[in-house]
Sequence to fold (298 residues):
Amino acid sequence: MTALVDPASAPSGATSLSATGITVRFGGLVALADVSIDVPPGTIIGLVGPNGAGKSTLFGVLSGLLRPASGRVFIGGNDVTNVNPQSRARLGLARTFQQPELFMGLSVRDHLVLGHRVHYERRRFWSDLVNFRAIFPPSTFETERVDELLELLGLTRIANTPVAVLPLGLSRLVEVGRALDTCPTVVLLDEPLSGLDYRATENLIAVFERVVASSEDGLSLLMVEHDVASVLSLSSNIFVLDFGQVIAQGTPQEIRANAAVRAAYLGDEDAVSEDHGTPAASAAPTTTATATAPPTPS
Fold:
């Protein structure tokens, strides 16, 4: 069950997803220390940081796979800190993973149908396990919605292709499509560009922009990604983690100019440049203060 918002602890303003004061410890290791993040409706938000910064741990807390030692998580104004992942999904949270979690025996269309039925026809779950196509014909609503999503993602031509033969970029698109067909308000994207070549990366970025722009319900994306240049080009706001703390947040321009971010990336100016080869111009630092890293990194 979801808890009603406590006005004293709920975040101010409209947010699809937010977390306040999140701290996570694994024994004596502090993986996250007082981390706060918010995802407004209809936005693409980036979450970046060096390896071991705590990004995966924060995703685990947001999705309900990990419970924080302190802090609160809210979905659409509901306190879901102690709510399991299934209930969070019903409240509008969806997630993809670093490695696509697909059923190799199913086609592209089958995966989108599965996402649709999880949200709209949960009673068909057991019959679909026995025979996915079952004895019940798909509804007109299901067919139209799946067709629209296939077109939006650019997957119509390969709708009946088994996912087992797809390259990584298209497999990622299928996983995103399945998540979108559950009617989420926010999708957590865990390194969606990892392992993709330039063309596949550009295609996936264009899809993300198109999906958010076409949403009538204010769909938001929260993306963890090591390709910082792509995150800067795609996101309206970015949070930077290092040693389990938020060391900076702001617009792409503010992040490019932030000295703490440059230090976290060991002087790799290309990582925070406007493009992959040109150092960013100097600008005023963000208003977010640099946090002091805890003695033990995550």
Observations:
- The chain has one domain: 17-272.
